[in-house]
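Last lecture ended with a question: if I hand you only a sequence, what can you say about the shape of the protein? Today we answer it with a concrete record. The protein is AAA domain-containing protein. Below, first the input exactly as provided, then the predicted structure, then a couple of comments.
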Amino acid sequence: MFDTKIEEIPSSVEMLIGRTPDDDRPVVVMTCGLAGSGKTTFAKAMQSHFPSFERLSIDEIIFKHHGLYGVDYPANNEIYQSYQEEADAVYLREFQTLLQSRKNIILDRSFYAKEDRDEFYCLIQSHGARRVLVYFKAIDKEVLWQRICARSAKQKDANSALDISRGTFDTYWSGFEEPIREDEVVLNVL
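The predicted structure:
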């Protein structure tokens, strides 16, 4: 079970992220899951518990460069899409720089599509790092929707700036490509 008020990193993850004298490769933790599943909460907790990890977030890159959606720039999907493409390029550059520096990294990202995950797997492998895919598996669709609604009711920040409509959420749910046999650590979201 995964609780969004996480205080400890699950042992199933913790045992995979340590460097040893026999294996000192840097570690890349990839979060994978739908909106509302707890990826960002987990990534922040990981960084708090393991300060050697650098966290990358597209949402925070957009916020750093442009501010909040609908507050600092118009609530316009075309503008947001262009900012997201720009942030994706920054994210990739920063990721490659961290890999080259042999840093431990947390990728706070949905990894919605297998193609996206595969691209990052190749980058990780080509830089001699190890990967740990943490999949936040939603057991009940409505639990995620309730979390999204609760988050939308709170004050906006970099990680919750974009309101997700029910239609958009349903599209995410039906289009999500669940990792299967990708050596994923599964955290059930209840």
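Comments.
1. The CA atoms of residues 96 and 104 lie 12 Å apart.
2. Confidence is low (pLDDT under 50) at residues 1-5.
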